[in-house]
Structure formats: C-alpha cells, structure tokens
Amino acid sequence: MDFRALPSGPITLSDVTIPACLAGRTGGLIRTDLHLRDGRLSKEPGETVAMDGAMVLPCFTDMHTHLDKGHIWPRASNPDGTFMGALETVRADHANWSADDLAPRMEFSLTCAHAHGTRAIRTHLDSMNGQDAISWPVWAEMRDRWAGRIEMQAVCLVPIDAVDDAFAGTADIVGEHGGLLGAVTYPVDDLRPRLRLFFEMASARGLSADFHVDETLDPTSETLRAIAETVIETGFDAPVVVGHCCSLSSQDEARALDTLDLVARAGLNVVSLPMCNLYLQDRQAGRTPRMRGITLVHEMRERGIPVAFASDNTRDPFYAYGDMDMLEVWREATRIGHLDHARDDWVTSVTTEPSAICGFGRSDLSPGAPADLVIFRVRTWTELLARPQSDRIVLRDGIAIDRTLPDYRDLDRMVSP
After folding, report:
1. 373-376 and 269-272 strand pairing
2. Residue 3's pLDDT band (cuts 50, 70, 90)
C-alpha cells in the first residue's frame, strides 16, 4: 500500500485497524472499514482502498505546550538541566522576546505539529513584566493565520504570588483575546487568598482556568489539594485544568489518594507532561535519578478524573528535545507510566480526552466526525510504538497534507548564540 496515493473523492478505507473505544465500541484494537465523504467520516461507502490492516487514529490534540519558549535552546540552553536552571535561563531570555522573535519560532512549532498530525493546540504564554502586551497579539495573529489547520487556545502564565490586584491588567488582556486564566502554583503563605482572587477574576471575565501545579518532588507541596478545595468552596463552575502534579508521586499513599478524591469531587481535569518531568525532576549532578516525576494517572482514571498527555516544552531550557509530535508523547507516556498491561482505552488521553477537556470538538472515529486522521502502516500497538512512524499519512478533511518538516536552519537568524 502506498500511503501517498489515496484517491480523491468519497473513499472507503477497507480493513483498517482502529481502537474500539474511538468508535463507540468495546474492546481493544478491531478491524473494520472507514468511509470518508465530504471531509467527514460517513456511513455511506465510497471507492474502496485496501488498507491491509493499517492503523487509523484521529488527529491529535496537544493541550499543554509553550509555543513562546520553543526552540530557544541554541541561544539559551539549560546550564545544568535543573528546574531552577531552566527558570532562570528563560527569565534572562525574555529580553529577546519581541514580536519578530516570537512569530517565526511559533510558526516553526506549528508547522511541525501540523505535519505530525495535530489538529488542536493549547499553549501557555509567559505574561509577566509587560510580556503579555507583546506575546498575546502575536499569538492572536498565529491563531488567525493557522485557522482551518490548527485550532488554538492560549493561557496566561504567571507565578501565583503575582496574582494580586495588578494581575487584573493581564486578566483583561486574556479576556480580550478569548484566552484562559493561568498561574503556576507552589507553596506560599497566602496561597488560599490568592487562589480565591484568581477565581474571582476568572469568574468576572467568564474565563476558564489552567494551572501549572506542584512541579516538584517535594511531598510537602500540596497546592493541588488547595486548588481542589478552593474550587469546591467557591463553587467556581468553569472548567479547571491542572498540569504536572508531580509531588503526588512522592507523597504518602493515603494522603495522595485522599487528594485525588478531592480532585474528583471538584471536577478538575489533569494533563500529565511525562517527557519534560522525566527530564527535569530528580536531577542532581553525579547522581542517577530515582524517580520519574509522572503523576498518578492510573489512580486518577480509576476515580473518573479526565487525564490527558501533552508535549509541554520543545527545545528550550525546560526540555532540550521534542518536535511537537504527539505520537512521541504517547509512546513515551506508555513507557514511563506503564500504560500497557492496563486498560485498553489510554489512547483517548491524546485524542478524544484532551479535545473534550478543551472544548475543541469531536475527535473520534464515528460517522459524522471530521475526517482528520493519521494513518500508520502498522497493525498492533507494539508495531506503532516501536518506531517513530515517519511514513505516516495525515488527512485533513479527508485530504492528505504535505508533511514536510521545517529545517532548523530556518531559525538560525533568531536563535544562534
């Protein structure tokens, strides 16, 4: 089968492998036919194309990225691979973040994501010290430029101790651009009043919330618990996403599970970033890391908590690698989090689950869904996850796209040291 030679017009992809959970059916992988007509999956057959068991997935949703930081590594590498090394290096590099610098780097990342089969992205935007006035208009231009190819959302990113009366200015910018309110939470003495102020500002502007939470292996860091309790106390009813939640993995089991019961009660959504957390957490010079940094994803799903995986950072001080490829994220999440030998619907964590959490619309394999598909010349999970699958085909509205990746040399003007 030649992936690059699918005919135009209504077609039937005959004998494909799909996850049953993405077609409203039970079980693991199944063999079936998919009908494509007028840019959507259909019940009506078209010209038959024998697929010989090729696996088909919906295009991916990447719900936690940092397009503003992407690809600065050549000029701003992490000096020691630690979290603090990343934080300090990025803060110093903010001086370079003009509109002319941000736009080409965002364009590069979006081109990669599109070529790999991502249809929707949520990005966090550093919004301190006047950067919000620069980055948000650039992101809005990117959102409009990429409309029809990648649907985009954005979240402001500030430390929780910057959530004060002056934060209202940033919240206004977010509201004007149709974004989400966000913050990084960690233990501070006045965490609860700052969280209440945060939710008051979000409610006043009709904004959803998306936090970076407990990105540490310090078991005393319990801001996830504080967020859940504050949501319950305030009755905040817009969607709330919490990302990272690494400290749960180092806490006493009973305490961690009790916190997850609160998270479920509060209706929070979780996004895990396994590649970045594996890179940063438990890093000490001359010492082999002992902990993975992944949060308690199995225990979360057992409680009905929506869980997704996402790229996070790409070639910046927080993560030196990555290519905005959600198949790579899924492959590494499976290995790091032992998603194999578990439930058979974990694939939803990079497809339907993040799409539903963010409100991006349908991303499944049932009739009526968009014919936004990624096709792989494999038939089983082990075949899929064993290789990078560089020969995949990506269909958007049922039509194969150009999957040419951009050249890193295109960024030399911006990021050369």
Report:
1. unpaired
2. low
Tell me the catalytic residues: 215
**pLDDT tens digits, one per residue of 185-223:** 999 999 999 999 999 999 999 999 999 999 999 999 999
Class of the domain covering 60-358: alpha beta
- Nearest to residue 119, comparing CAs of 66, 59, 64, 67? 59
Domain(s) of CATH 2.30.40.10: residues in the chain: 3-58+364-400
Q: What are 97-143's pLDDT values in tens digits?
A: 999 999 999 999 999 999 999 999 999 999 999 999 999 999 999 99
Helix (H, G, I), strand (E, B) or coil at 198: helix
Cβ proximity of 220 and 248 under 8 Å: no
79 half-sphere exposure, CB direction, 13 A CA radius: 7
**Pairwise CA distance, residues 224 & 246, whole Å:** 10
> Tokens standing for 223?
């801001």
In the chain, what percentage of residues exceed pLDDT 90? 95
Q: Say which CATH architecture domain 3-58+364-400 belongs to.
A: Roll (2.30)
pLDDT tens digit sequence for 304-337: 999 999 999 999 999 999 999 999 999 999 999 9
Residues whose CB is less than 8 angstroms from the CB of residue 169 and which lie 6 or more positions away in sequence, other chains included: 132
Residue (of 376, 381, 384, 380) closest to 403 by Cα position: 376
Average pLDDT over the chain reads: 96
Report the b/e string of 224-252 with b at 16+ CB within 10 A.
bbbbbbbbeeeebeebbbbbbbbbbbbbe
Ranges in the chain annotated CATH 3.20.20.140: 60-358
238 vs 160, 207, 211, 267, 405, CA distance in Å?
19, 7, 13, 10, 37
